[in-house]
Specification:
Layout (H helix, E strand, L loop, with lengths): L19 E4 L5 H11 L6 H10 L10 E5 L6 E14 L2 E13 L8 H15 L4 E4 L4 H6 L3 E2 L2 E7 L14 E2 L2 H15 L22 E6 L6 E8 L7 E8 L3 H12 L8 E5 L5 H4 L20 E4 L2 E4 L2 H8 L6 E5 L8 E7 L8 E7 L13 E2 H9 L8 H5 L16
Parallel strand pairs: 4-5, 11-12, 15-18
Antiparallel strand pairs: 1-2, 2-3, 3-4, 5-14, 6-14, 7-12, 7-13, 8-9, 9-10, 10-11, 15-16, 16-17
This protein binds coenzyme A.
Coenzyme A binds next to strand 4, helix 3 and helix 4.
């Protein structure tokens, strides 16, 4: 059925079954670019977007990632969405996942449920193509929470002068790489690191273009499998020395981690200050001599401000039994799930030994789809968004056996998806 938006009036909710969502065609590029220019003002002009879509030069792909909500065969483009095909590493396992981006609805058609309906349709498309998880950076967590996404990650942003870092040993072995060395070493270094970096996605050449930028700085210590590296960008700081924003740290051992920090501690003549986005598990406040954000007053009694918390991304389970099968299930594990948008995930599930072929494998079997009885919301059924957040954080070990065997870099299994989209 085709949705006739002309027959709708503002405030009148359309029937989601009427939505026409289709892959973008060449004729959609310009209207989509205009829609996204209006929806995300100040990012980049419509012509630049259109060119990137046509040539497929965006970090995660071109037109093939775009989906359109339209008002019939000759109707206007009313909404757009990008569904990126990713491979995401959870607890060391590479899993097919969809990166959701650029959800937008024409301003004339907002607040009628079209955005949610388009995203719901996108989730169904993603599940049907075999993806197990969807991931996005939210503009409003509540909006995506209602659509089944749970918060997965967090960074603590510290700002400090180099002298605040202890002069850890190993700094002499740290080298700043040339542009060519960055390109030669870092993608391969990252590829090895994905196995121990929970949440990281497999990256191709398009996700490494920032290594060629003039403002990129990569410091590296050690060789081969033992190497550790940080990737940073140099930011101008009018009237002062530039500052250094550390975007990514890829280290497996505490020695290389400390060597890089020791090197940074000596850079007082190069950088005015450093911005470091730490994973909570780094306990970075324990590293700094004076872990207090410069220029901030005490907010409450004797407490001081130390870091800014950055939250995101959000993750959603698309296919619970398949995901649990990949991550490993405890025999007898059980969970009752409510997922109105992807009802294949709803029901009461139990870890059962596979009956066939004498296998010792355990899979998640649906005991009943009916959760209306004792398992209604509020009576024990977990909303899929809540389960998604818990599961990705490894806080549901019965459904994530892999989380127990996972050897995380530095022993820190915090989720660390990079904000490339
Ligand atoms: C975000 C965006 C896609 C939402 O589109 P939309 O069609 O308005 O989305 P919905 O109608 O599903 O939901 C929007 C709000 O309207 C409410 N709503 C939904 N149907 C409604 C109806 N029939 N009547 C009144 N309100 C309704 C929703 O509850 C929601 O409320 P909230 O803001 O408190 O969460 C749109 O605002 C947009 O394009 N924004 C700019 C781009 C952007 O920020 N994209 C997200 C990137 S992460």
């Amino acid at each position: 059925m085709t949705l006739d938006l002309n027959s709708l009036r503002p405030g009148e909710a359309p029937d989601p079954a009427d939505l026409r969502v289709r892959p973008a065609e060449p004729r959609d590029i310009e209207p989509l670019a205009r829609l996204w220019d209006v929806a995300f003002p100040g990012e980049r002009p419509a012509e630049v977007r259109a060119k990137a879509l046509e040539e497929g030069t965006d970090a995660l792909g071109g037109r093939e990632t775009c989906w359109v909500l339209d008002a019939g065969p000759d109707g206007p483009v009313v909404g757009g969405l990008r569904l990126y095909e990713l491979e995401m590493h959870l607890f060391g396992q590479p899993l097919p996942a969809t990166g959701v981006g650029a959800l937008a609805i024409d301003p004339a058609w907002r607040e009628q449920g079209l955005g949610s309906a388009l995203l719901r349709r996108g989730l169904r498309i993603a599940r049907d193509r075999g993806d197990l998880l969807a991931v996005l950076y939210p503009m409003r967590t509540g909006y995506y929470g209602r659509l089944g996404f749970g918060l997965a990650g967090e960074l603590h942003r510290f700002r400090f002068t180099p002298e605040e870092l202890p002069p850890f040993p190993g700094a002499d072995a740290v080298r700043v790489l040339s542009r060519q060395e960055r390109m030669d070493h870092i993608p391969e270094h990252y590829r090895r690191f994905t196995a121990s970096g929970h949440g990281l996605i497999t990256r191709g050449p398009r996700q490494w273009r920032h290594l060629e930028a003039d403002d990129c700085l990569v410091a590296r210590v050690g060789e081969g499998d033992e190497a550790g590296a940080l990737v940073a960008s140099v930011q101008p700081n009018p009237g002062h020395l530039p500052s250094l924003h550390v975007r990514e740290v890829m280290v497996d051992t505490h020695d290389t981690y400390r060597a890089l920090l020791g090197w940074l501690s000596r850079q007082g003549e190069a950088w005015d200050h450093i911005v470091w986005d730490a994973l909570p598990g780094e306990k970075f406040e324990q590293v700094l001599r004076h872990p207090r954000l410069p220029g901030t007053p005490n907010r409450r009694g004797l407490w001081f401000e130390s870091a800014t918390i950055l939250r995101g991304p959000m993750v959603r389970i698309l296919n619970l039994p398949a995901l649990a099968g990949r991550l490993g299930v405890e025999p007898g594990a059980s969970v009752t799930v409510l997922d109105p948008d992807l009802p294949d995930n709803s029901g009461h599930w139990q870890g059962e030994r596979a009956p066939s072929s004498g296998s010792i494998g355990v899979h998640l079997a649906r005991v009943t789809e009916d959760i209306s009885g004792g398992a209604a919301p509020g009576a024990g059924a977990l909303p899929i968004g809540f389960l998604s957040g818990l599961l990705v954080q490894g806080a549901y070990p019965a459904l994530t056996r892999a989380s127990e065997d996972f050897e995380a870099a530095l022993g820190i299994s915090d989720f660390r998806l990079w904000d490339v989209f």
